Amino acid sequence: MVRRPGDRLRGRRVPVSTSWLRGLLEEPELISDMGLPPGGLRNIRMAYARSLCLRCKGKGLCGRPDCPFLEALRLFCSSMPDVGLDLEGNSPPAVFVGRMGYPYVSVGPLVPPLKADTAFFDRPEDWHGLLLAEIIRMRTSLVRGKFVVNVRKPWKAGKLMERTLELALSKGPVGSELYFRRRPKKVLILDEGVQPFGPTGPIRSLEVDAGRWDRRLEKVYSDTDLRASEAVLWLYDRGVPVSEIQRAFSVGAMGLGHLRRLVPTRWSITAVDSIISRGLVERIRDRPPLDRYLVFKGSLLDNHYVIILLPGTWSFELLEAWAPGALWNPSARTCVISDWEGWRGRTTYARPGGSYYAARLAVCEALDRMGRQASAIVMREVGPGYKFPVGVWQVREAVRTALRSRP
Fold this sequence. Notes:
Oligomer: single chain
CATH class of the largest domain: Mainly Beta
Radius of gyration: 21 Å
Helix content: 25-40%
Number of helices: 11
Shape: globular
């Protein structure tokens, strides 16, 4: 169902087709964690109409052709580089797989006009402590080249896809040359689920230097009998950063051979967070309960966190409070959104979106280190200083950092 501008939303359900999720991966549990559950949003009711922005987060549920928040952010980030018909630079490496038009999506590398060590540009695990403006400035320097490909038949894109895959699995920055069909446009797409990037343009050719693949990623790529979830956990247990696993997952580098396909970046981030945290939950549910109450605090980019671990069996809850004037909350009152799961886990997509799975992963990692299970509550307060979405990595890393500190 396509919503038109002017359609009223107050008191109405918002049906969304979920047919694009069917058959995306081989595991039904993962499908439910990656996107909308069967039935879409029909069972989710708004507390009041002005909270729609918290549910939507730039997906266009209000029916407006342009999100007023994203439009303001695009205007703010007008310092992106001017790019001609060709570009040479070192990709971190980084790749973006779009979701619009699925299963025909736009895919391509992210390359800054820099011949330097750019690995830091796509390594959010190391961004803790950076200012919001520094992250925006760094990420908007990444120019996105794109070409359209069928996610189920990526090989039909020929050398463009082949070289994009080589770049995605490389260990360290990769020298790249992009040749565009037309000059990239300065249209910034800011999304709560993914990191921002800079100008975007269609490419006719891509050249990459011969780089070294990470042997762990190469092993997973070569094993066409290894299920995607098993591959993700195998890589995680061997120390591959979550952001690198997410990148490899998005370019279809893992899973059973006949089921491999590209996964939009936004979905791959949530999918990997979900797979790893579910794997950790399986471990910690067999551990003894925590024997005391623990409270941790942390802050990042005007996002403030309180994590409470209580003695008891495994359960998890995330509560998000968005202050007036904060991103996605135009109202004059604080908006709250939350969701939870019990000992058996959950089978539907959490209402807070990707931040739920990012926080759950960080909590599960901490409990796994402690060798305990517990009931966990994560409270996130988003202040008015958080005006630009930089991705759910900041939730994962902020909670990780807080749980490494003294309670």
